[in-house]
Amino acid sequence: MWLAAWMENIQNTFKYIILNPSSKLKGEMDWHKYEVARRLRGVVNKIRAQYQADWKSPEMKKRQLAVALYFIDKV
To answer: Which of 25-35 are b and which e, b meaning 16 or more Cβ less than 10 Å from the residue's Cβ?
Structure first.
């Protein structure tokens, strides 16, 4: 993850300021990411059952959303 970027005028390339992997900010962001994954683990089967049921919905928008969720889930 980078914090800042700029175009270097000598070589016309981008330069980045990147977080150190052991920095406190990076550790907190990773911790939050894993906490979300832990909470999701408890409800993922319910979400899958819901989007599979929505495949047969009479509303086109709901079916499209269900298919999009399926692809997000599988990829």
So the answer is: eeeeeeeeeee
User: Locate tokens 């993922």: which residue?
Assistant: 44
Q: Give the pTM.
A: 0.55
Tokens standing for 54?
A: 């929505």
pLDDT digits (tens, 9 = 90+) for 10-67: 888 988 888 777 777 777 888 898 999 999 898 999 999 999 999 999 999 999 999 9
* Torsion angle in degrees (nearest 10) through CA of 21, 27, 32, 37: 60
Q: What end-to-end distance do the CA atoms of the chain give, in Å?
A: 22
* Tokens at 49, concatenated: 């059952």
